[in-house]
Design brief:
Elements lengths: L1 H9 L16 H16 L11 H16 L2 E13 L5 E13 L3 E8 L3 E6 L3 E6 L4 E6 L4 H10 L15 H6 L4 E10 L2 E10 L2 E8 L6 E8 L7 E10 L18 E2 L1 E2 L13 E2 L2
Parallel strand pairs: 6-12
Antiparallel strand pairs: 1-2, 1-11, 2-3, 3-4, 4-5, 5-6, 7-8, 8-9, 9-10, 10-11, 13-14
Amino acid sequence: MKHFRCFLISISVLINILLFSFVWGSFQSVISAKNIIQSQNEDQSEGTDKNVNPEAVKILRRSMDYLSSLNLFSVQGQSTYEDILSTGQRVDYEMSGSVTVSRPNKLRAENIGSNFSQIFYYDGESLSLYNPNKKVYATEQAPGTIDELLYFAQDSLQMHLQFADLLYSNAFQLLTEDLTYATVIGKELIGEIQCDHLLFSKPGVDFQIWIDDITNPLPYKLVITDTATPELLSFSTVLGDWNLNPEITGNTFYFTPPKGTKKIMFLKAEATPLSGNKNLKEK
């Protein structure tokens, strides 16, 4: 799982974040999709890597450039993290989340799973992680921009924020670094949103993304698959309720410890999408 987890952190698009389901079509639909992909690759101009469809790269760039241009937005998502039990069966874990961003230096993220609840506050000076279920919190001095914060959370605290993959200002560069394959699968609906379905490959990782092709080019689904292991486990997220003018209150990004809570320390541990409260350690 090393490549898989590193990818979740380093491209840290998408963003808790993290929220997906697999849709299995009929046999003829699969054959049709393969024919479309083959045709697209054959139509690429000479001098371009035949495995990288420039149209797929163009659509992804348009989406990531648009997202990085937004100074204020919020989004919600539902994530599914696949794992293998010690008995050999594959199991899915679910979590929901939301992110509110005010560039360049304000962020709030919430993660809720079956065995944990977390709220992240970043106000441009400090990062606070609050667990309302256990009534504990930790606070750490943080750098001055969202990009720097995400790297700091990864490198210093070994923490991956949900939806982080989509929050970097250079998300397109991170997503396409070492790209070996890219194609447009076709048009598909995510809820009521018509999207371009794109597929990309990097060493050890495949990722799919569904991007609105009618209005704003926002991503509505992301699936990341670990191809470095035989299990081919995936982390998926369905995004929705994009708000480009969310209401901001005085406590949106600023954390004030509620009465009765206990301050504890961050625990440096290997980050996973289901790290729960493992990033916290009592003093």
